[in-house]
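Severity: low
Component: inverse-folding endpoint
Summary: output formatting inconsistent between runs
Steps to reproduce: submit the following structure tokens with default settings.
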């Protein structure tokens, strides 16, 4: 068998990579160990959240599929951080895991150009440092021009519960060490990482009188820019808020040595996620706290399993049962599935180029947890970019490399390839220095034109974008040119929408700048043409934050003047005078594309950047 692109793994990264490659007309194979688990959500039953929800909107804007499939499986949706500025607002949805998986599989199975193969990839086929295919356990050699590895937590994985170790992946599925050995044989350094998942309990065993009900938002939203809200359930399914107790803390402290992560296994284990710690971690690191917040979240309409968000553990099962029964409202809880930790192999992402192709083997791309990340959304974003760039390389076109002021996906990939990670990386709004530009509401305005111009979106989607841009321009012009006079009628209108009177004639644009003014109320009060909520929201944000945006634009221009200076002519940084030895080592290891990337590498200091600038200027003068 021979393909243009092979995608190994059917998780969120693999689904995005395979879909975009097939939709681009490339003969694509998706090879997975179990077809029934394509699109599986092995951990939390949610998509989105802080920063992550913005990534899902970016995936939609670029032509990916996570947003569209998630919108078909919503049990509950919230817009987070509504009391804060627009730069940190983000959607988070409770998802029916079974519906999501079913609809993802249906979507992929009906795609032209995509062949789904059930097999275990055990080796890479390499010729002269160039990938030419993979070896399957059952199908032997499968040849291709490009390979994208998206192995998730299945690469040489072990499931850990107390002192019990099982050589398997999530759901007890097969794992294998041979692909890891193949990567090592081809020059890759692997690291061991770990993550965990909480117990699932029977909803009928929860005392709902002792927990607080958490409802979704009344206003309905979608992740996709191309779909109207149509939730799976109406009314939305509630979640519940509860807390651990001093008894929970005592049980954990008394049995800490039995946890896999704290002595239950007498060996060094992989590093776990700092920003999604186990309950053992929380009790140890925050020993002054008597309780910790937990959310009880539904997993599916097909069964009554409830996911205990914030309670991942690797304690033995008998200790887990005691811990769960000590939680408020769960005194009679029945555990349907016990918590576990999972340890797996991952690459050092410093061996990646900015297009997610490896520096060691040409035409080999990687995406998702194999790159050291955590989370469905981070994986899907990488898978989409890896798939796009594999297509673009086949077409002999320049890659898509999203900048830090262009997308959260750009921040994610830049962090990985310049800073690396020694723990499962999680995307946070605090990682994005330009987060007010990278909002949930404007992902299409930032990215859809690029995706269309690169050939990844159809004309009708691009026309939707241009129509929206036209409406934004029209409404902005209307507010900039509509002058209202100081009179009793106009001042009464202003008072009716909760803002002060005017003392002189004023443009409506200046009224919008007042923080308390809602643009739609102003439009209605002065009988202006109505536009969609999406359009009016954009206009209001643009007007209210215009001064900040102008300042930010100048700063970005100033930084990029030097940041985009290419370093590709430097093959060995020992030739640059006066660089610190650590900088030489790090720069030779990472081989950054430009000065901006170099400045973000740990161990490269401002003085080293100055030396690089001098070196580049000397080269220009000599040239």
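Observed output (run 2 of 3):
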């Amino acid at each position: 068998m021979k393909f243009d692109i092979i995608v190994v793994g059917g998780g969120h990264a693999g689904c995005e990579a395979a879909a975009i490659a097939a939709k681009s007309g490339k003969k694509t194979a998706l090879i997975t160990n179990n077809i029934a688990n394509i699109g599986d959500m092995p951990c939390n039953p949610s998509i989105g959240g802080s920063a992550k929800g913005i990534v899902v909107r970016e995936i939609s804007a670029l032509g990916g599929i996570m947003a569209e499939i998630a919108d078909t499986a919503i049990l509950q949706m919230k817009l987070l951080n509504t009391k804060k500025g627009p730069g940190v607002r983000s959607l988070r949805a409770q998802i029916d895991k079974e519906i999501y998986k079913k609809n993802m599989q249906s979507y992929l199975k009906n795609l032209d150009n995509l062949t789904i193969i059930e097999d275990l990839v055990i080796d890479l086929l390499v010729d002269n440092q160039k990938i030419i295919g993979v070896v399957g356990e059952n199908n032997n050699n499968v040849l291709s021009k490009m390979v994208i590895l998206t192995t998730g937590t299945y690469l040489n994985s072990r499931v850990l519960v107390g002192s019990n170790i099982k050589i398997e992946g999530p759901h007890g599925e097969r794992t294998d060490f041979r692909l890891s050995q193949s990567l090592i044989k081809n020059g890759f350094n692997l690291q061991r990482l770990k993550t965990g998942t909480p117990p699932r309990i029977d909803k009928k065993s929860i005392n709902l009188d002792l927990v607080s009900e958490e409802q979704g938002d009344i206003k309905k939203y979608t992740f996709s820019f191309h779909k109207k809200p149509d939730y799976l359930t109406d009314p939305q399914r509630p979640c519940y808020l509860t807390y651990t107790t001093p008894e929970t803390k005592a049980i954990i402290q008394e049995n800490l040595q039995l946890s896999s992560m704290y002595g239950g296994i007498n060996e060094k284990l992989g590093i776990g996620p700092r920003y999604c710690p186990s309950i053992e971690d929380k009790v140890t690191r925050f020993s002054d706290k008597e309780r910790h917040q937990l959310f009880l979240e539904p997993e599916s309409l097909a069964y009554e399993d409830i996911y205990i968000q914030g309670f991942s553990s690797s304690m033995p099962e008998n200790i887990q049962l005691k811990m769960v029964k000590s939680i408020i409202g769960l005194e009679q809880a029945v555990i349907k599935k016990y918590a576990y930790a999972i340890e797996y192999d991952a690459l050092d992402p410093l061996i990646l180029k900015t297009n997610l192709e490896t520096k060691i083997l040409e035409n080999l791309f990687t995406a998702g947890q194999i790159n050291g990340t955590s989370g469905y959304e981070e994986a899907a974003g990488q898978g989409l970019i890896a798939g796009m760039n594999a297509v673009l390389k086949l077409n002999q076109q320049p890659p898509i490399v999203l900048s830090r002021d262009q997308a959260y996906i750009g921040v994610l990939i830049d962090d990985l390839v310049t800073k690396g990670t020694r723990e499962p990386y999680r995307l946070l709004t605090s990682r994005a220095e330009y987060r007010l530009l990278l909002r949930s509401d404007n992902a299409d305005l930032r990215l859809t034109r690029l995706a269309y111009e690169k050939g990844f979106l159809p004309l009708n989607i691009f026309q939707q974008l241009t129509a929206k841009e036209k409406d934004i321009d029209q409404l902005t012009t209307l507010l900039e040119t509509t002058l209202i006079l100081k009179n009793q009628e106009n001042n009464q209108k202003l008072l009716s929408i909760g803002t002060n009177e005017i003392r002189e004639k004023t443009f409506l644009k200046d009224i919008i700048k007042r923080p308390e003014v809602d643009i739609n109320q102003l439009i209605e009060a002065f009988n202006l043409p109505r536009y969609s909520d999406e359009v009016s929201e954009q206009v209001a944000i643009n007007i209210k934050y215009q001064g900040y945006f102008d300042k930010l634009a100048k700063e970005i221009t100033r930084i990029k003047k030097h940041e985009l200076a290419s370093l590709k002519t430097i093959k060995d940084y020992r030739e640059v005078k006066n660089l610190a030895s650590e900088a030489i080592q790090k720069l030779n290891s990472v081989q950054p594309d430009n000065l901006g990337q170099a400045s973000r590498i740990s161990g490269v200091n401002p003085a080293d950047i100055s030396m690089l600038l001098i070196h580049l200027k000397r080269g220009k003068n000599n040239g």
